[in-house]
Amino acid sequence: MFNVETIRKDFPILQRKVNGKPLVYFDNAATSQTPQQVIDAIVEYYSYYNANIHRGVHTLSQEATDKYEQARLKIQKHFNAKASHEIIMTSGTTHGINLVANGFASLLEKGDEIIVSALEHHSNIVPWQMLCERSGAILKVIPMNDEGALVMSAYADLLSEKTKLVFVNHISNALGTINPIEEIIQQAHAVGAAVLIDGAQACPHVKPDVQALDVDFYVASAHKMCGPTGVGMLYGKEEWLKKLPPYQGGGEMIAEVTFEKTTYADLPHKFEAGTPNICGGIAFGAAIDYMNAIGFDKIATYEHELLDYATAQLLNIPGLKIYGTSKQKTSVISFNLAGIHPYDVGTLLDKMGIAVRTGHHCAQPIMDYFKIPGTIRASFAFYNTRDEIDALVTAVQKAQLMLS
Amino acid sequence: MTIKSIQEDLIDEFSMFEDWEERYQYMIDLGKTLPLIDEQYKTQDNIIKGCQSKVWVHAEMEDDKVVFTADSDAIITKGIIAILIRVFSNQHPKDIIEADTDFIDAIGLKEHLSPTRANGLVSMIKQLKMYAIAYQTQLN
């Protein structure tokens, strides 16, 4: 049974007041809030068994190593990877993307092509531009339509035997559009290209099955799914991870070192140089436990109700326009008020205790497409309520009144 | 009027507002009513790009004083610009260089000048001071 009031009690921050008003947190697409169960995991780690891992023979180091590796297994199970060494612990989605981009630099030849989508976050564009500069590969872009959905016929036209890599986000951070990644992956494989999916925005809402998707690489961040910042994961098919060279040199990633030659450690350690974010990794595992205990089906159903309710309520406001109207979308609403700058609305909403994101959401190409400086983005999580949406609607109306 | 006395006036004016709504409505009205910059000066050269709102600044020297005009695409940012122009424009370069912006805190608008705010205002104040330094160099 999904009871939002019970769930809300798990999140201490939701009791907070901002500018004298009860906090309404609608910036979940930027970072999610942290339940007590995850906070406890962090406190327990530092209070009880903080130690460096994979190298000490003492008890604390053993305990920390066990917990860290348990977290990896939880992540493996959650994403249904075939083996735990296919899960590389990273500092987050951006790190995972850069790791793959850097690895491909040695595999690409001049004239090879990389395809990205027009819906990408900056972090998913810049590494590929850098990679193209280094390797002489060419970057191609899948365009989007007025609904904020990818034009799949254009994608089919871009694919050829020159295509080596396709990079698409599972769900757009700026608009909430769910991309047809199954189709994207199948079509890429048909021409022999590898696919990396950025799951940062998807993982708070759905439970991806990397084997069923047959995806080559999938990246995610813990902090979008009730975990701490500074930790994430890269899933890679074993064959690909073996093919890619290490990303960073350092401790942990080596098997044997002499001044003549270093042999690299096996997976996953080959990609995990230096002391990792041990506490973060363990807390990531706790976050996955927490969300699975609630259940992703229930989360998705509830969030969809919130989305439908908020969409209907917001559209009652004259002059309000929603960007990203694809039928396949998650609980994100990007909108503007006619003739009013999003920054002004965001500023006034903050005064009323409502946290939304304003600006271009690190997705300037999307804003350029719609010819707007940015949007106001309200993104809902499973701990948000209809009452909070009502508060948002009232606050937007008030802001509109003050600004027009 | 000196920069200091204008700042004191502003603090007096803002102390009459009872809550944030009155304070913001005042700024919004300032932002709406004031023509702040001649359209010809809204050029790429004069733009200060914040992550969220854009700010344009133009400076001219008139009788040993720097006259600033500025604008923004966001109305609250424009309201704050109006306040900054009132304080810094039509002053001697030396006074502009030496002035502080502590009054912003006293009138309850501190958050708008935080470096993380990304509205271009922090860069705008830097820009005002740079102009003042440049003009001061010419005077010397």
What are its keywords?
heterodimer, A: 404 residues, Aspartate Aminotransferase, domain 1, Aspartate Aminotransferase, domain 2, 2 domains, seven-stranded mixed β-sheet, 14 helices, 17 strands, 40% helix, 17% strand, globular, B: 140 residues, alpha+beta, three-stranded antiparallel β-sheet, 6 helices, 14% strand, Fe-S_metab-assoc_dom (chain B), SufE family protein (chain B), Cysteine_dSase (chain A), EC 2.8.1.7 (chain A)
Question: Describe it for me?
Answer:
The complex is a heterodimer of chains A (404) and B (140). With 404 residues, chain A is of the alpha/beta class. Chain A has two domains: 4-35 and 295-399, Aspartate Aminotransferase, domain 1 (Alpha-Beta Complex), CATH 3.90.1150; 39-292, Type I PLP-dependent aspartate aminotransferase-like (Major domain) (Aspartate Aminotransferase, domain 2). Chain A contains 14 helices and 17 strands. Chain A has helices spanning 4-8, 36-49, 59-79, 93-105, 126-135, 152-158, 181-190, 210-213, 238-243, 278-294, 296-315, 342-351, 364-370, 386-403; strands spanning 17-18, 21-22, 24-25, 87-90, 113-117, 138-142, 163-169, 194-198, 217-221, 232-236, 254-257, 262-264, 320-323, 332-337, 354-355, 357-359, 375-379. In chain A, the strands form five sheets. A seven-stranded mixed sheet of chain A has the order 4-10-9-8-7-5-6, sandwiched between helices. A four-stranded antiparallel sheet of chain A has the order 13-14-17-16, covered by helices on one side. A two-stranded antiparallel ribbon of chain A has the order 1-2. With 140 residues, chain B is α+β, with helices and mostly antiparallel strands. Helices cover 50% and strands 14% of the residues of chain B. Chain B has six helices and three strands. In chain B, strand 2 and strand 3 form a beta hairpin. Chain B starts with a helix and ends with a helix. The A-B interface holds A 19, 340-344, 346-348, 351, 358-360, 373-374, 402-403 and B 20-21, 24-25, 28, 51-54, 73-77, 112, 118-119. Chain A: Residues 24-392 form the Aminotransferase class V domain. Chain A: Catalyzes the removal of elemental sulfur and selenium atoms from L-cysteine, L-cystine, L-selenocysteine, and L-selenocystine to produce L-alanine. Chain A: It catalyses: (sulfur carrier)-H + L-cysteine = (sulfur carrier)-SH + L-alanine. Chain A: One of its GO terms (biological process) is cysteine metabolic process.
